[in-house]
Amino acid sequence: MNQDTVFKNNKDWIAERLVVDPDYFNTLAKGQKPELLYIGCSDSRVTAEELMGAGPGEVFVHRNIANMVISIDLNVMSVVNYAVDHLHVKQIVVCGHYACGGIKAAMQSADLGILNPWLRNIRDVYRIHRKELNAIEDEAKKYDRLVELNVKEQCVNLIKTATVQKAYRNRGLRVHGWVFDIHSGKLIDLKIDFEGYLKDIMEIYHLD
């Protein structure tokens, strides 16, 4: 898609919106009140709002390679802080997807340069769950299971943060883990046991 096509599409999109609602952009300019923070993968096939049927202003979105929540990544931590403390979102979703290139890359032994420290976090997930994963003989199924386990671990990383813990205590913020099945288009709820995870980690990660 070249630049000319993008700007033509933009004009068409504006016209379509104004036909439906002449005040569409005036309303949009008044501010945002999303109830959901979506943390997903940068993969071009996984478009956050589209797969949820959401429109502008409904979802606060952060995307990176393999939907990671890393405590020293100021980008994702700033997004979480802003979404929770300032936009007062009610839910946070970590959404992975099958056939994730980042997950597959992390399972290879190749030196990928600047990607190495990022992918190491995925390899840490593999290390934690290696007994289960090594028992899966089918490589495709092993990749899929690592996608699911990675989502769960990133949810745990969210629960470790003071921002999420305080919002949970004060107003019942929830954390969810989803997987987008790129083969069928379906969203799969991994049914994260929020209270269970919270209870397990509070001895070490409790933050007032």
Annotate the secondary structure layout:
Blueprint: H1 3-20, H2 24-28, E1 36-41, H3 48-52, E2 59-64, H4 74-86, E3 91-97, H5 101-106, H6 116-128, H7 130-134, H8 139-159, H9 162-171, E4 174-180, E5 187-189, H10 194-205
Parallel strand pairs: 1-2, 1-3, 3-4
Antiparallel strand pairs: 4-5
Describe the structure.
The chain contains ten helices and five strands. It is of the alpha/beta class and 208 residues long. The chain has two domains: 1-30, no CATH class; 31-205, Beta-carbonic Anhydrase, Chain A. It has a five-stranded mixed sheet with strand order 2-1-3-4-5. The longest helix has 21 residues, at 139-159. The mean pLDDT is 93.
Tag the structure with descriptive keywords.
single chain; 5 strands; Beta-carbonic Anhydrase, Chain A; 5-stranded mixed β-sheet; 208 residues; 2 domains; 52% helix; globular; alpha/beta
In brief, what are we looking at here?
With 208 residues, the protein is an alpha/beta fold. The chain has helices at residues 3-20, 24-28, 48-52, 74-86, 101-106, 116-128, 130-134, 139-159, 162-171, 194-205, and strands at 36-41, 59-64, 91-97, 174-180, 187-189. The protein is globular and about 55 Å long.
